[in-house]
Amino acid sequence: MKKFVLLHCGFEMPTPEIMTAWGAWFESIADRTVENIGFGAAREISAEGTKELPWGADSMTGLTIIEAESLDEAEAVAQGNPFIASIRIYEVRGG
Q: How many Cβ atoms from other residues are within 10 Å of residue 4's Cβ?
């Protein structure tokens, strides 16, 4: 079994409906979830300096690590997520 990181992109103020949908999705994938991580305040560091990263459509709001046989299977799991903007899926190499 391989591991995949699902990066959750986009933020909008949570409503009860949004929270219910996310809770249902997390419950539906509990048997393949390795870890769920939510993000808070953020900064970006680059050659140009440091800048604050506000919450918005481009925000990375968290990640979920799952186990799946393939990238296609990980995508199928992600398709059920009530994402705000998008989800990016990366296969974990090593470890």
A: 22
pLDDT of the residue at 94: 81
**Closest alpha carbon to 2 in 83, 68, 51, 86:** 68
pLDDT at 95: 62
The domains found in the chain, sorted by start residue, are 2-91 (3.30.70.1060)
C-alpha distance from residue 12 to each of 22, 42, 60 (Å): 13, 16, 12
Tell the burial category of 21 from Cβ atoms under 10 Å away from its Cβ (0-12, 13-18, 19+).
middle
Q: Helices then strands (H, E): number in the chain?
A: 2, 6
Instruction: Name the strand (E) or helix (H) holding 17.
Output: helix 16-28
pLDDT tens for 36-46 read: 999 999 999 99
pTM value surpassing 0.70: yes
Q: Considering just the CA atoms, what is the radius of gyration of the chain in Å?
A: 14
